[in-house]
C-alpha cells in the first residue's frame, strides 16, 4: 500500500520493470487507508505491501504513526518483503512493539559476485549486519530466500549458500538461533534483462537441492519449490500463442488446480505438448539477442536497448544505481511530464529520520520505545467482566471450521469496537474461550463463548445489535449472561442432542434400522485418523436415537473427554447405511448440550 514499485534495479525482477517508475503515496494517505481498512475489516494484522516496503521513503514516520494507532488495538504491522539493508534498528524496534512477526530476508544468491550480476545492491556484510540486528532484538528465527539457476551461476555459488547460513547463524548473541532456507528455480522472465537466458532443467534443479541438503547445517530447515512446477512456470512465462492449444489439451487430459502439489502432474502437460507437436523444454532454451521473442509486441515502457545494456552490465557485474536517489538511468519509462517518479520524502536517510518531526505523536512514542523497550502491555482498565455469549450457527455458517468461526468473531468484536482483554506476550490474542469445536457441516443452536470484557454490559440489547451488524447471515448472538467462573470447567461426560434430516421422508425400513442399531450392544466402525486405522464403538456413544413424526431423527450423543468421539454424521451414516452423497445431503442441527448426570 505504500509504493507502486521497487526502486532497486534487480535484474531478474519483472515487476520492477513493468511497474516503473516508482510512485509513492504520502505517509498521511498510507495511515488513513490503514485506519479505514482495519476499521472496516477488523483484522488483527496490517501488512504494508509493495515490491520493496523497506525502500518506501516515508516508512519510518508512517510506521511510527501506524504503531501509535494500532498498538492499543493489538493489531500488528508486518512488512513481508523487506530488502536487506532497509531493515533499520528503528523499524525493527517498531515491529517489536506489538508482535514479533517473522523476518524473511532475500539474499537471492550465495555470493557477492552473483548478487552483483543480478544487481541486488547488497553485500554479505549488509546481510550479516541485518541478521545481527534482528537476532539482537530477540528473534530466534530468520528465513532466507534464494534462487538457483541465475545467469553465470556455478555450483560454488550454490555451495556458498550453506556457508552464508552458517555465518549468519553465528551473528546471534543467544542460544539456538535458526535460519531456515527457501529455494526456487530462477525463471528468466520476459521484459527483463535476463529474458534471453536459459532456465535450468528439472534435473539441474534437483542437483542443486541435493547439494544444499548435504551442505546446510542440520539446524536449518530447507524448503524448495518443486523444480517440475518451476519447469511449467517457465513454460507459461516464456511461451508463445501456441501454448493456448497445449493448455486446452492438458485440460482435456484431466489437468486441474496445478498450483496444488497434490493435483500437479507434469506428465499430463508433457503429453499435451506432444499432442500439439510442441517440445515444452524448447521454451526454456537460451534465446539469441537477434531472435524475435514471443512477447516482443508488448511494450512495458522500458526500452529494449536498456534491457540489452543491463544484460551486458550483468555479465560484467557492473552496478546500476537506484534512479530515485541517483541520476536517471534512462530506461525509457518516464517522459518526465505525465510519467515521472514520485518520491514523498527525498530518499536520504537523514532526511527521512527528520521527517518524524511531521508526526509529534510518533516522535513521543519513538522516545518511549527507546526508554522502555517493548510496549505491549495491556493499556486501560485491568478489571475483568467475564460474559458468556450464546450464539447460533446456521445455514452456510455450517461450512466454516472452528478456527474460521473464531476469526470471524474476533474481527466482528474489533469492528463493533467491543473492548476485550488480550493475553500478554509476543502474540496477544483476545481472551475468549469457545465451546467445543463443532464438526464442519453441522449447524447449531447451542454454541457459546466466554469473553473477558473490559467494561460491564450495561445495555445488552444495544451490544447484541452492534455485533449483529458485524456478523454474517447465519451467525446470531442469542443472549449474553454474566459468567461467574473465572475458568469454564468442562465436564468429563457430556450429552449433546442433534436433530437430523436426511433430505427424504423416513420409511418403515429406517425405523427398523434405528431399532436394529439400538438392539445391539456394540457397533464398531473403522476410521483412519492421523494416518492410523482406528476403531470406534459408536453404539456406546448413542444415548438415545429416535425417528420423529416430522421426518427428522433425534440423536443424543454421549461424549467423554478421555475418549475420541465420532461425528454425528458418521453415526447416522452407519445406522441408515447412507452413501457419501446421501451423508452430504443430510442436515444436522445441534439443539442443546449439557453435562451428563
Ligand atoms: S526513466 Fe529514469 S527515472 Fe524513470 S524509471 Fe527509468 S531510470 Fe528511473
Could you provide a short overview of the structure?
The protein has 597 residues and is α/β, with parallel strands linked by helices.
Would you give an account of this structure?
By secondary structure, the chain is of the alpha/beta class. The chain is built from 19 helices and 16 strands. It has helices at residues 15-18, 27-41, 59-70, 89-96, 112-117, 124-136, 155-169, 202-215, 227-238, 243-252, 266-275, 304-316, 349-354, 360-372, 402-415, 460-470, 508-519, 568-575, 580-585; strands at residues 45-47, 76-78, 103-108, 141-148, 178-185, 222-224, 385-393, 432-434, 442-453, 475-482, 493-501, 524-529, 532-537, 542-547, 553-560, 587-595. The strands form 4 sheets. Strands 7, 8, 9, 10, 11, 14, 15 and 16 form an 8-stranded mixed beta sheet that branches. Helix 2 packs parallel to helix 3. The radius of gyration is 30 Å and the shape is globular. The chain binds iron/sulfur cluster (SF4). Residues 20-21, 323, 328-331, 333-334, 341 line the site of iron/sulfur cluster.
Amino acid at each position: 500500500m505504500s509504493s507502486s514499485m521497487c526502486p532497486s534495479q534487480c535484474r531478474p525482477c519483472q515487476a520492477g520493470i513493468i511497474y516503473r517508475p516508482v510512485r509513492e503515496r504520502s505517509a498521511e494517505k498510507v495511515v488513513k487507508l490503514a485506519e479505514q481498512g482495519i476499521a472496516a475489516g477488523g483484522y488483527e494484522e496490517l501488512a504494508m505491501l509493495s515490491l520493496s516496503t523497506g525502500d518506501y521513503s516515508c516508512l519510518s514516520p508512517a510506521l511510527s504513526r501506524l504503531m501509535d494507532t494500532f498498538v492499543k488495538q493489538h493489531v500488528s504491522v508486518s512488512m513481508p518483503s523487506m530488502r536487506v539493508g532497509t531493515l533499520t534498528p528503528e523499524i525493527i524496534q517498531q515491529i517489536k512493539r506489538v508482535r514479533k512477526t517473522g523476518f524473511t530476508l532475500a539474499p537471492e544468491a550465495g555470493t557477492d559476485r552473483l548478487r552483483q550480476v543480478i544487481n541486488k545492491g547488497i553485500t554479505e556484510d549488509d546481510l550479516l549486519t541485518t541478521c545481527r540486528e534482528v537476532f539482537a532484538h530477540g528473534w530466534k528465527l530468520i528465513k532466507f530466500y534464494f534462487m538457483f539457476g541465475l545467469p553465470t551461476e556455478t555450483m560454488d555459488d550454490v555451495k556458498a549458500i550453506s556457508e552464508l547460513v552458517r555465518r549468519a547463524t553465528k551473528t546471534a548473541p543467544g542460544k539456538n538461533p535458526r535460519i531456515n532456507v527457501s529455494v526456487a528455480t530462477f525463471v528468466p522472465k520476459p521484459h527483463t534483462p535476463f529474458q534471453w537466458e536459459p532456465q535450468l532443467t528439472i534435473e539441474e534443479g534437483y542437483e542443486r537441492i541435493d547439494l544444499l541438503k548435504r551442505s546446510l547445517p542440520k539446524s536449518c530447515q530447507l524448503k524448495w519449490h518443486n523444480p517440475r512446477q518451476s519447469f511449467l512456470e517457465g513454460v507459461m512465462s516464456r511461451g508463445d500463442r501456441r501454448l493456448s492449444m497445449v493448455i486446452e489439451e492438458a485440460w482435456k487430459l484431466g489437468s486441474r488446480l496445478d498450483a496444488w502439489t497434490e493435483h500437479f502432474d507434469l506428465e499430463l502437460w508433457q503429453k499435451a505438448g506432444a499432442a500439439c507437436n510442441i517440445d515444452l523444454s524448447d521454451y526454456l532454451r537460451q534465446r539469441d539477442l537477434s531472435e524475435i521473442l514471443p512477447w516482443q509486441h508488448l511494450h512495458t515502457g522500458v526500452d529494449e536497448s536498456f534491457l540489452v545494456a543491463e544484460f551486458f552490465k550483468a555479465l560484467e557485474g557492473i552496478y546500476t544505481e537506484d534512479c530515485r536517489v541517483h541520476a536517471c538511468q534512462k530506461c525509457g519509462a518516464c517522459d518526465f511530464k505525465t510519467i515521472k517518479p514520485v518520491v514523498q520524502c527525498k530518499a536520504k536517510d537523514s532526511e527521512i529520520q527528520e521527517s518524524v518531526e511531521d508526526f509529534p505523536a510518533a516522535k513521543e512514542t519513538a522516545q518511549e520505545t527507546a526508554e522502555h523497550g517493548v510496549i505491549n502491555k495491556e493499556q486501560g482498565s485491568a478489571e475483568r467482566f467475564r460474559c458468556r455469549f450464546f450464539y447460533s450457527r446456521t445455514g452456510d455458517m455450517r461450512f466454516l471450521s472452528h478456527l474460521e468461526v473464531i476469526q470471524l468473531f474476533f474481527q466482528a468484536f474489533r469492528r463493533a469496537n467491543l473492548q476485550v482483554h488480550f493475553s500478554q506476550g509476543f502474540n496477544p490474542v483476545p481472551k475468549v474461550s469457545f465451546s467445543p469445536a463443532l464438526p464442519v457441516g453441522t449447524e447449531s443452536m447451542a454454541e457459546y463463548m466466554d469473553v473477558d470484557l473490559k467494561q460491564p454490559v450495561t445495555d445488552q440489547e444495544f451490544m447484541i445489535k452492534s455485533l449483529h451488524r458485524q456478523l454474517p447471515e447465519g451467525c446470531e448472538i442469542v443472549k449474553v449472561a454474566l459468567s461467574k467462573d473465572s475458568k469454564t470447567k468442562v465436564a468429563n461426560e457430556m450429552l449433546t442432542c442433534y436433530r437430523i434430516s436426511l433430505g427424504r421422508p423416513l420409511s418403515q425400513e429406517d425405523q427398523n434400522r434405528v431399532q436394529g442399531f439400538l438392539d445391539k450392544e456394540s457397533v464398531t466402525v473403522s476410521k483412519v485418523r492421523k494416518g492410523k486405522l482406528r476403531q470406534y464403538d459408536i453404539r456406546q456413544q448413542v444415548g438415545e436415537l429416535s425417528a420423529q413424526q416430522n421426518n427428522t431423527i433425534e440423536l443424543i450423543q454421549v461424549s467423554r473427554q478421555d475418549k475420541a468421539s465420532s461425528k454425528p454424521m458418521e453415526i447416522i451414516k452407519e445406522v441408515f447405511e447412507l452413501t457419501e452423497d446421501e451423508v452430504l445431503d443430510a442436515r444436522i442441527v445441534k439443539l442443546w448440550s449439557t453435562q451428563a448426570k
